[in-house]
Amino acid sequence: MEKKKNILISSNGSSIAKILSNCLVSHNINFINDKDLIYSNPKELEKHFEKIDVYVHIGFKGFLAKDEMELIDYHTRITYDLLFAAGKKNVEKVISISTLELYKDYEANLTVSENWETKFPLDQPELLCANLSEKVCKEFARDQVFEVINLRLGDLIENSDTRLSEEKFKKSINLMVDLDFSSEELKQTKNPFNSARKKGPSWINLHLQDTFEGQKFLTNKIDNLIGV
Predict the structure, then answer these.
(1) What is the pTM of this model?
(2) Domains and CATH numbers, the chain
């Protein structure tokens, strides 16, 4: 059994935060509260990352903003400050929680993989901010501050062609927390991260939804890892 990790989650008031808490119950979990995001100096954020092994940043429907400007500010400036603080405290891994809805504008008959460019309605602030959050996380990965695993999730609520069961999510997120993607064993085997690293040395992009006939997105990469 893997040792317990100290995990910090970017918020505690959303439905995805509650699901994450249930899924990661075998680890030591802490949350960033709204009051923690009121700061005059970004250095004040560093105390939240003391002795943290993994930071889970919710980039889609994780922050409850009062308006669009506050939402954009969180997913740009505040996300940058949080990740900078994580880097200063030598957090080893960041898991970015994003969404498969970023491919919403593709035709229904297309089966999309991680290699496709995102295509979404620009008039939907939540999706715009999910995209912005990914871009900020990717910049830190490119600078090799830490490894970022970007999980684009299917629908955890509705029974749709992108549905994702909490059971599969739990299995996947715990694997992401525990697995050492830079180990020699993984480097020498054919795995989805070798090709992904060519675009960004520490950026790992994975699509996650249930596997069934008629599923919207290809999930071969993560399915091979979790043994589906």
Answers:
(1) 0.90
(2) 6-226 (3.40.50.720)
